[in-house]
């Protein structure tokens, strides 16, 4: 099965753990396979992308995904969610209200970044709000493996969720708190003064030997995350 993931365009990170760098916006989508449940981390930028992800994961595992974790509320990470019918959706506390209030902003942001207007409108019209909100940490039993969801923000946004997959090696899905393919983007919804502290929490969560999966770019190590933390602190004038 692990070879099949790679042949299908996914990057194997650990047994039963893989990620895909999506075309267009290079956003990461992750998958964690347990005996009884399959968790998807983020869902792509359109319903079409979400549907292709769902069908591909189902084909590779012989089972449909059952749970979704949304790392933050940007269009390229959430707009495919409605394609995963029947999945339980998890997000950081407050994400549900933001997605209800800011649908028009989300649609316009997607269009501004190149999503077809009709596709953006369709995805926003069918957008799924989280069913479960994570305030601190929440453990999910996937059958034979437990995954930890951690509200480590604010930082990149006010609603940053990390996903820790224990194992050898441990894998941490960071969302856009960490970016490897470019300078971390601080949009109008970023909380720059808290971003370095969010990365401190991320490093404490994963430890020195984990593989850290950024929202965009190649997988990195703890030293990279620590260096990016220091760069952000200098960039935003945060002491400590």
From TrEMBL:
Leader sequence residues: none
Domain Metallo-beta-lactamase, first and last residues per copy: 26-216
Pfam families, alphabetized: Lactamase_B
Coiled coil: none
InterPro entries registered for this protein in UniProt: Metallo-B-lactamas, NDM-1-like, RibonucZ/Hydroxyglut_hydro
Alphabetical list of Gene3D superfamilies matching this protein: Ribonuclease Z/Hydroxyacylglutathione hydrolase-like
Annotated PANTHER family: ACYL-COENZYME A THIOESTERASE MBLAC2, METALLO-BETA-LACTAMASE DOMAIN-CONTAINING
UniProt-recorded name of the protein: MBL fold metallo-hydrolase
Organism whose genome encodes this protein: Streptomyces javensis
């Amino acid at each position: 099965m692990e070879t099949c993931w790679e042949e299908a365009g996914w990057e194997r990170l650990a047994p039963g753990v893989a990620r895909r760098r999506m075309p267009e916006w290079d956003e990461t989508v992750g998958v964690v396979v347990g005996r009884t449940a399959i968790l998807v981390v983020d869902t792509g930028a359109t319903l079409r992308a979400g549907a292709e992800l769902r069908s591909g994961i189902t084909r590779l595992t012989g089972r449909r995904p059952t749970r979704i974790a949304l790392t933050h509320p940007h269009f390229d990470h959430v707009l495919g969610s409605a394609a995963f019918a029947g999945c339980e959706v998890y997000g950081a506390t407050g994400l549900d209200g933001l997605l209800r209030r800011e649908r028009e902003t989300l649609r316009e942001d997607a269009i501004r970044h190149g999503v077809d207007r009709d596709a953006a409108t369709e995805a926003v019209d069918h957008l799924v709000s989280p069913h479960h909100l994570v305030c601190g940490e929440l453990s999910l039993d996937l059958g034979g493996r437990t995954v930890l969801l951690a509200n480590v923000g604010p930082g990149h946004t006010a609603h940053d969720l990390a996903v820790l997959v224990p194992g050898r090696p441990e894998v941490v899905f960071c969302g856009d708190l960490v970016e490897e393919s470019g300078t971390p983007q601080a949009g109008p919804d970023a909380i720059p003064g808290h971003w370095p502290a969010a990365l401190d929490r991320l490093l404490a969560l994963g430890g020195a030997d984990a593989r850290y999966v950024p929202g965009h770019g190649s997988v990195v190590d703890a030293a990279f995350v620590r260096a990016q933390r220091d760069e952000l602190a200098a960039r935003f004038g945060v002491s400590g």
